Amino acid sequence: MSYLEIKNLEISFPTPKGKYIAVRDINLSIQKGEIISIIGHSGCGKSTIMNAIGGMLTPTGGSVELASEKIKGPGPDRGIVFQNYSLLPWLTVEENIFQAVDSVMSISKKEKHEIVIENLKMVNLFEHKDKLPGQLSGGMKQRVAIARAFAINPGVLLLDEPFGALDALTKGSMQLEVLKLWNLNNREKTIVMITHDIEEALFLSDRIVVLNNGPASTIREIVEVKLPRPRNKIEIVKTPEYIALRDHLLHLLTDKFSIEDMGMVYKS
Ligand SMILES: Nc1ncnc2c1ncn2[C@@H]1O[C@H](COP(=O)(O)OP(=O)(O)OP(=O)(O)O)[C@@H](O)[C@H]1O
């Protein structure tokens, strides 16, 4: 039995035009410590699957189980990082993390503060602990959000396009930050990440789940990324294994299209 088990998952939404099936027949067994990316075109159901794991959406069919327990709602065993940071703007960096720790951990205030400080240091934000989110750059805000998610020590980290709003350089250092934290945690944290970025998925993941387009989206293919770790971003892109995986993913994601010099032209 896997750590995170998605069985025959279906999620549909009631709409004025009737039932809209967003995803169906989703089967995925995730081992403890795996890094999984979910990739697919806009609207194919990535966030829907993520929200079902997070417990924000209840399956209309099938189930999601964590450590053999059916997920019935959000819980401290799953930390979530969204693209838009979702920090409380009236609390300082330190208070934002403390608030999360305080809400889920039954330990002394001193111990809670120690956890906050430790996590702030891990993402190199200790010097900025008294700033409000509005006084931070996008990358810094996302580092706070990641530190907050790690501070509650969840078994599963759910990253919903966490670096989508960041520039390429900041994005690169944030990816390293996540891998650093994952390594510090003895690679025991299970990470499920949504991304639109094939290179990001290849750099970080053990497996990449490629979804078909919706409605009623299903898994098109699960691509294994057997590139050895630690991965050096500059070196791996030159390896034949990486190039073959990248081409395969590009093919899976673009074979309905023909790319012409002025852009993508729909064929079918
Ligand atoms: N509450 C809802 N009611 C009706 N339809 C919904 C609802 N939430 C999502 N959907 C639909 O389900 C489908 C999947 O949405 P979802 O947000 O999971 O896609 P996504 O792959 O995460 O997209 P993106 O990459 O653009 O963020 C879309 O067609 C969306 O319109």
Please, how many helices? 8
Compute the average pLDDT: 91
> How many structural domains are formed by the residues?
1
Task: Return residue spans where pLDDT drops below 50 for at least 5 consecutive residues.
Answer: 257-268
Main structural class: alpha/beta
Helix content: 25-40%
Shape: globular
Main sheet record: 6 strands, mixed
Range of strand content = 25-35%
CATH superfamily: P-loop containing nucleotide triphosphate hydrolases
What is CATH's topology name? Rossmann fold
For the structure shown, list the relevant keywords.
268 residues, alpha/beta, 6-stranded mixed β-sheet, 8 helices, 34% helix, 27% strand, globular, binds adenosine-5'-triphosphate
What does this structure look like?
The chain is α/β, with parallel strands linked by helices and 268 residues long. It has a single domain (32-56, 69-211, 220-266), classed as Rossmann fold (3-Layer(aba) Sandwich), CATH 3.40.50.300. Helices cover 34% and strands 27% of the residues. The protein contains eight helices and twelve strands. The protein has helices at residues 46-54, 93-104, 109-122, 138-151, 168-184, 198-204, 233-236, 240-254; strands at residues 4-15, 18-30, 35-39, 61-66, 69-70, 78-82, 156-160, 190-194, 207-211, 219-224, 257-260, 263-266. The chain has a six-stranded mixed sheet with strand order 6-7-8-3-9-10, sandwiched between helices. A four-stranded antiparallel sheet has the order 2-1-4-5, covered by helices on one side. Strands 11-12 form a two-stranded antiparallel sheet. α2 (93-104) crosses α3 (109-122) and α2 (93-104) packs parallel to α4. The radius of gyration is 19 Å and the shape is globular. Adenosine-5'-triphosphate (ATP) is lined by residues 13, 15, 20, 22, 40, 42-48, 214.
